[in-house]
Amino acid sequence: MKIAVFGAGAIGGYIAFKLWQAGEDVSVVARGDHLAAIRSNGLTLKSDGAIHNAPIRATDKAAELGVQDYVIIALKAYALPAAAAEIALLADRETVLVTVSNGIPYWYFYGMKGSWRDHVVESVDPGGHLWRLLPPRQVVGCIAFHAAEVKKPGFVEHTYGNRFSLGEPDIASCERADALSRILTNAGLKAPVHSNIRDEIWLKLWGNLAFNPMSALTGLTVDRLAFQPDLRAAARIMMTEAATVGQALGAHFGMSIEDRMNLTGSVGPHKTSMLQDLERGRPMEIDALLGSVVELADLTGKPAPLCRAVLAMVRERARQAGCYPE
Fold this sequence. Notes:
Blueprint: E1 2-6, H1 10-21, E2 25-29, H2 32-41, E3 43-47, E4 50-54, E5 57-59, E6 70-73, H3 80-88, E7 96-100, H4 129-133, E8 139-152, E9 155-167, H5 175-186, H6 197-218, H7 222-227, H8 229-248, H9 257-265, H10 273-279, H11 286-300, H12 305-320
Parallel strand pairs: 1-2, 1-6, 2-5, 3-9, 6-7, 7-8
Antiparallel strand pairs: 3-4, 8-9
């Protein structure tokens, strides 16, 4: 079984390491100093206080790897459109495309019943570019519930969580998701298969859409945002607006807003990925995490005034830092 991980950062690097450790034929596609470090010294993972190294094959030219059985796409949403054509070089019609995504994925409406069936989410897939190059019929969705960070090139530090929820856009099917679950479980990861992966998408997004932009605007870690009363109240309003949108699309939320905020806050003094990107001058994953929610609010006719206001502010904060296009 040939597996390529496209994007060997905090999520992809962790998954690739665990697959290598389990004896899978895994390669990674990476860039820049991170690629150079992996080529020279292997991929290093720090987890549970232990540090291990894996001499994983790494390249910046996907075509060198040939067609894969699985392509695990672990890129941030803003990077996916530019990489899609290269990712497609790793796939034929039988390849399973595993999208490890934050926010609303480009394939969200694929096969969905009702008037929005096969609708393209423009904030994450302008013009349906991804839909054409990476066909949703080949997708298994994956939602990561873990925290990790690339501390330096070639070095990933994993701090908590190892659950990667799986599901297929076509809820009538789970065969490919079941097969992938067995591979990931054998690698020591939790990989439950869900009959409706969209519920898991909203569960993860529910916290991210509030705490990520709020952290970028305030510079605070998630424990402060979740437990300081005035900030918690603001997050609650954003999450309430988003729940109305999700429910209009048929999503079911498996916990209360209070429990979801407590879950995020329990992580402790952790900087969100959006705050990390802002501090390092990197592009910020704004549109997939909050822009898409506002777009879907417009689609469903649901008001989302605070989400809309925070979106405008965090976009401007990112523009000023050179982390969002003008």
